Amino acid sequence: MSVAACGGGGSTTAGTSGGGDSTITMGFSQVGAESGWRTANTKSVQDAAKKAGIELKFSDAQQKQENQIKAIRSYIQQKVDIIAFSPVVESGWDTVLKEAQNAKIPVILTDRAVDSKDTSLYKTFLGSDFVEEGKKAGQWLVEEYKDSTDPVNIVELQGTTGSAPANDRKAGFAEVIAAESKFKIVASQTGDFTRAKGKEVMEAFLKAQPDIDVLYAHNDDMGLGAIEAIEGAGKVPGKDIKIITVDAVKDGMQALADGKINYIVECSPLLGPQLMDLAKKVVKGEQVPPRVVTEETTFTQEQAKQVLSTRQY
Ligand code: AHR
């Protein structure tokens, strides 16, 4: 890999490894490096591009939409064959996507969606069903407390404000728990998908809320930060406060196997190979499905113990 440019957000160009469609150049704008999930996703995209013989221009937006817009404009100027990006937030993309369309450069959304009404602005969206992930988290909670009539006080650590996973995981979870009035979300705030913010916000929750039964964190990293806060407050994570997270990265799975997290809903970051297949088809002018949903599962503590040693990321 050779570093071609380094500016606000940081860009690199990965060479191809021979074979395949070496003429395809993809500009990829990544959200940032906020979580273990994101690091695994970046590696998956970079490794898959190399394997597919696609030249990858990669930039890290450091969780800022303005950096992603700049990166996309730069890819348009460089006349790449295809642009792929994981939008940090859902709204505000129409103008730059229109610019790509006018330049006849196809766009693929990966991981996160945009809320543009005009779906012709992108060829396909590859990624998880975040609403479903939130529902799975809620369903576990309903089952866990099925024999209890006492109130269940829940605190929620939301992902990045305005991002598709934060919006959808919140909505899916809320829909399922609304069926029973004993469930009450007593506090809900963003932790920006990072461990540091998860810890900070959980510390504030613990000070403000005398009686927390459950933490629902929109990703493992925030959950792991919150575990530090819970232990710091002299409570036992997984017992005094039950914890549900999303992702299933290795550190999260370790905490689940150790009994500090109670349940994890998987969100797979391994999107690279499918992204490269879709990109090749789009560049050739072949039809691709408008939505490709990632296959995912869930993990209990026992299941985490069984799969931990073989977890790739
Ligand atoms: O968009 C996927 C989410 O972004 C992951 O769940 C989270 O860890 C990441 O930062």
UniProtKB/TrEMBL annotation:
Homology family: Belongs to the bacterial solute-binding protein 2 family.
Gene3D superfamilies hit by this protein: 3.40.50.2300
Disordered: annotated span: 1-21
One GO cellular component term noted in the UniProt record for this chain: cell envelope
Any GO molecular function: carbohydrate binding
TM helices/strands, residue ranges: none
Location relative to the cell: Cell envelope
Main location group: other
Domain Periplasmic binding protein: 28-287
Record has DNA repair as a keyword: no
Full protein name: ABC transporter substrate-binding protein
Pfam families: Peripla_BP_4
InterPro entries named among the record's database cross-references: Peripla_BP_I, SBP_2_dom
UniProtKB keywords: Signal
